[in-house]
Design brief:
- This protein is α/β, with parallel strands linked by helices.
- It contains nine helices and six strands.
- The protein has a single domain, classed as Rossmann fold (3-Layer(aba) Sandwich).
- The chain has a six-stranded mixed sheet with strand order 3-2-1-4-6-5, with helices on both faces.
Length: about 250
């Protein structure tokens, strides 16, 4: 099987390559574990990194890693079939995260954040077992700016995501190569190539976090008035002016 190499493919590939170069996300000899959940973002990241790898003067390896949290109905066979069809090196890992969540989660707390913490721990362990020094995640441009707005509106912090971060375990580096790729392009790319997107099958699957949903709507509405809004906001994250902020640790007050 081969991807449809149209203008959209080239656009996403160029944006991803730009981020890799600007933030030094991939280096000679890297072995990268790519978290593949069965969603549009992780499929796109996997295919674009593989495409870049084939033509890159920098030699690196990738391995697709799927963490099955144990939710009834999660169709890992669909993901594995796709990985085999395209010849990806991969690892499918089944866990009991669902049972742990059901037993330990405090009522009223976020289901998704608890699940994410557990799966992240599994991903770190698998990366070490597979000899991977980096872990690639499929967060895109919209995720970055929505997180920035969420933190400003609800947490009172000027914080978003970073394209490159030392993992919680202090051993691996987490990279987000699609920081410059807009979600709308990922949606189109996924549809054009017929990627078999599946739901994680958790009890809240398909229920968008209401706060993030509001941020998405806000960005969408403002983009009608300011077409370059997304690019301006992602640019602002790399153009910080500490002297014009209120953090006393950054200036003389």
């Amino acid at each position: 099987m081969a991807l449809i190499e149209d203008n959209l493919y080239r656009k996403i590939k160029k944006a991803t390559g730009k981020a890799i170069g600007e933030f030094n996300l991939i280096e000679e000899g890297d072995r990268i574990a790519i978290g593949v959940s069965g969603g549009k973002d992780s499929y796109t990241l996997l295919h674009i990194l593989e495409s870049l790898r084939r033509r890159s003067p920098v030699k690196y390896e990738i391995v697709a890693v799927n963490v099955d949290a144990g939710y009834p109905g999660y169709r890992t066979s669909v993901i594995e079939e796709h990985l085999k069809e395209y010849g990806f090196s991969h690892r499918m890992e089944t866990t009991n995260c669902y049972d742990i969540i059901e037993e330990k989660r405090t009522p009223g707390t976020s289901y998704c954040s608890f699940c994410a913490r557990l799966r992240r721990g599994v991903l770190y362990s698998l990366a070490e077992e597979l000899g991977c020094n980096k872990i690639a995640l499929g967060h895109h441009l919209d995720d970055f700016i929505e997180t920035l707005l969420l933190n400003q509106f609800y947490s009172g912090t000027l914080k978003a995501m970073t394209p490159k971060l030392l993992a919680d375990n202090g051993k691996h580096t987490v990279i987000r190569p699609m920081v410059y790729v807009e979600e709308q392009d990922i949606i189109k790319f996924t549809r054009h190539n017929g990627f078999p997107v599946i739901c994680c099958a958790c009890p809240v699957c398909g229920v968008v976090d209401q706060k993030r949903k509001r941020m998405k709507r806000l960005v969408r509405e403002m983009t009608e008035e300011i077409p370059h809004l997304r690019r301006s906001m992602i640019g602002a994250l790399g153009n910080v002016q500490p002297r014009h902020l209120l953090d006393r640790s950054l200036g003389d007050f």
